[in-house]
Amino acid sequence: MKNKTGVLLGRLMCNIMRSPDTIITVAITPIMLLLLFVYVFGGAIESGTDNYVNYLLPGILLMTIASGVAYTSLRLFTDVKSGLMARFITMPIKRSSVLWAHVLTSLVSNALTVMVVVLVALLMGFRSGAGILNWLAVAGILGLFTLALTWLAVIPGLKAGSMEGATAYSYPLIFLPFISSAFVPTETMPAVVRAFAENQPVTSIVNAIRALLYEGSVGNDIWIALAWCIGIMAIAYIFASKVFKHRLG
Q: Where is the ABC transmembrane type-2 domain (predicted)?
């Protein structure tokens, strides 16, 4: 059995490059939210910072990734329904290559979309004095977050009976940042909502990214963020592998 992950990754990336509207479509909603909250609601929101786009960007980046991984489910669903997936697993290649190609495609395409959103934020006044190591740490956290959500996306992509079912799971993920520290400090929330917001993964990830970009001292947030990302990824990987074996033998 040969590992053809690179070849399969190239196939998927070629499809995306031939139709870049995937990246553009994923970027539109986060960019619109960025514009809306900064220029419409920003003046009325007390975030404790003079530059609200700086405060907002980390949460918007997580929403961008949550939107993007829905296409992983869609691509998997399409390959399964068309019979292409079944064809691949009869070839002399490692079966894991098929799944990893989709996962790595998600990682690359989401990285491209995140860069588009960051460029728009720069035009809107986003600034950071973070050094190269801090930026690499931010990239690492976003990469782990992408992998965690992508492995979650694999499960409905393989199990769903319809295109809508394959992508519907992403909606709660997209809106989860609204109940976190992504848009406003959790201190402004009612007690019950605050308790949920402070103990869900988005808040710790957003806080860790903010600290790396603007404060320099991350404290425990980075370890909590890494624990969430790695934990979700490990559990999702195990379930996704079992679904893959059960669905396609």
A: 21-247
Task: Write out the two tokens for 12.
Answer: 């998927």
**What's the alpha-carbon Rg for the chain, to the nearest Å?**
19
* Per-residue model confidence (pLDDT) at position 1: 45
* Identity of the residue numbered 153: A
pTM: 0.88
How many whole angstroms separate alpha carbon 128 and alpha carbon 213? Answer: 6
DSSP code of residue 2: B
Question: CA 28 to CA 38: how far, in whole Å?
Answer: 15
Q: What is the distance between the alpha carbons of residues 199 and 208, in angstroms, rounded to a whole number?
A: 14
Across-strand partners of 2? 93
Contact between 198 and 184 under an 8 Å Cβ cutoff? The reply is no
Cα 7 to Cα 2, 14, 92: the distances in Å are: 11, 11, 13
**Residue 220: beta bridge partners?**
none
Stretches where the chain sits below pLDDT 50 are 1
DSSP letter at 156?
H
Which of 85, 58, 206, 63 lies closest to 154 in space, CA to CA? 85
> With contact defined as beta carbons under 8 Å apart, do 55 and 139 qualify?
no
- Ramachandran angles phi, psi of 2, nearest 5°: -105, 145
